[in-house]
Amino acid sequence: MSLEKSYDIILSPVVTEKSTQGSMWNQVTFRVDPRASKPEIKQAVEELFKVKVTRVNTLNQAGKVKRFRGRIGRRSNVKKAIVTLAEGHTIDVTTGV
Amino acid sequence: MQVTETVSDGLKREYKVVIPAGDMAEKFDARLAELQRTIKLKGFRPGKVPVALLKKQFGQSVMGEVVQQTLQDTSGQVITEQGVRPAMQPRVEEMSFDEGTDLAYTLAIEVMPQIETGDFSTIEMERLEIEVADSEVDDAISRMLERSKNFVETEEGYAAQQGDSLLVNFAGKIDGELFDGGKADDQMVELGAGRLLPEFEAGLEGRKAGESFEIEVPFPDDYGTAHLAGKTATFAIEVKEVRRSEPAVLDDEFARKQGTEGVEDLKAKVREQLAREYGQLARQRMKRQLLDQLAEMHDFDVPPSLADTEFRAIWTQVERERGNAQPDHDHDHHDHEHAHDHHDHEHDHDHDHHDHDHAHDHGEAAEDDEETAKMKAEYRDIAVRRVRLGLLLSEVGRTNNIQVTPEDMQQVVIERARQFPGQEARVVQYYQQNPEAVQELTAPILEDRVIDHVLAQVKVTQRAVTPEEFMAFEQEAEGEDATDEAEAKPAKKAAAKKAAPKKKAAAKTDEASAEADKKPKASKKKKTEDEA
After folding, report:
1. What is the mean pLDDT of chain A?
2. Which of A76, B172, B208, B508 is least surrounded by Cβ atoms within 10 Å, i.e. has the fewest?
3. pTM (whole model) above 0.80
């Protein structure tokens, strides 16, 4: 997979209280392209961060319907991937790529 | 913390301060922990942000903050530990720090000199008691009488004399042409008051009401208005009324008009007033002498930075005065002219500007440079002396615990407000909002107190003199040392910005210098002017 494509798949890290808890099991969380598959994500992460990924869990978070001044709006859907890294590998989430 | 003294030269001190990396890290972590409790970050509940994350995101700025804080704390600590009193804000130099290394810096301080107040009781001084002579009281009263002279209408046929006043219409022509400002109706002219050209006044003398006549008036060559100077104008004059001046008589009625109970009371009050004025003069003189003596008695090094500040203050003032000198001259003309001619504003204004530029062109001549250097040296001496006296006075004040109480402050503010009738509330408000302004007011009080304190210890001999003798003394003193007066205008509290009026300024006491002179009166005056 080309580097460009990897950048397209991994959108941004998720930095929240919950996501940082994943560090206990060597897990990192990313927002990813909703169309990306687990193997694609695995490959992208390995390529971008030069780490070994043992497992990828994903979830789709459907955007909420929000009303603003009576008008209906919709937040975009988000796919997150919780990536488990092989022992000894780390990703510094805040430094970016 | 490690402190080593590297320089100790005169009043200069330099310390090398080293703070071990461990201490710094500790402080850094403590600050981070504190931050963690309070910071709000998206995605985290308050207080639940991991420290590692904080360190990554805010580490740099927090570190800067910690270093700053440490510098402040430690420099303060160094100062107390070394037992020095800095004259100015200490400077931090050659700071070096990186995460994981020791924080090292050099602290440069100018210390206050050790002031040993001399034995004041060795000072001998003379207190001049100025006696108010009866003749002076009489003089003052006759001046009052003169001022309150009445003009009474006269019967027909009365010829105007010196001191009388005439109501006239006049129209002046030069070469048969009316000129600007040469015409006026119902103008009061007082003979002998010198407000108009002497020839003009002379032409009116001996005239009676109802007369019409023409007189020729030559304008002097140096007349203020250029296009009139040296010309001769013909004034057609119509005298409408002649009023005889009636000198006011000193009687109980006059006394009552002046707000007193009777002639005796008036005399007593005038005498009192004079005595008060002389008392102030005498006190000023004494203060000046005392300061002179103090300056002679004490000789200690003055922190250069303080002297510099003082010098700069003086110098800017001098420069401004210099710049003002020319227009000032013009100003006189201006006034002069005003009396003659009320309508020439426009022209006069131009005149002013012109001259101003002129002054600039010539003022920057090369020979000035040498002069300037000399003056600078002179003023530097004055600055040093002033700072020294200021320090000395504040030291005396400190050691003897002389202070200005809040009540005193209140009183000066009220007094100040009284000087601006009709605006009292605004003045008081101004001072409430500007504590520094009050500071300026109270500084002279404190200074006065200190002077009193010193005076109390000084050997004083009394001597009664007449006002004339006193004036003679004054002149003598001025002649002896021209700069004396300038210097003697005492410095205020030590480091406070003080600008005593310079000699020239004192002589002129014109607005420009009064403004520059940072004494409260001036600033206050300025303020009201601005508001007006």
Report:
1. 86
2. A76
3. no
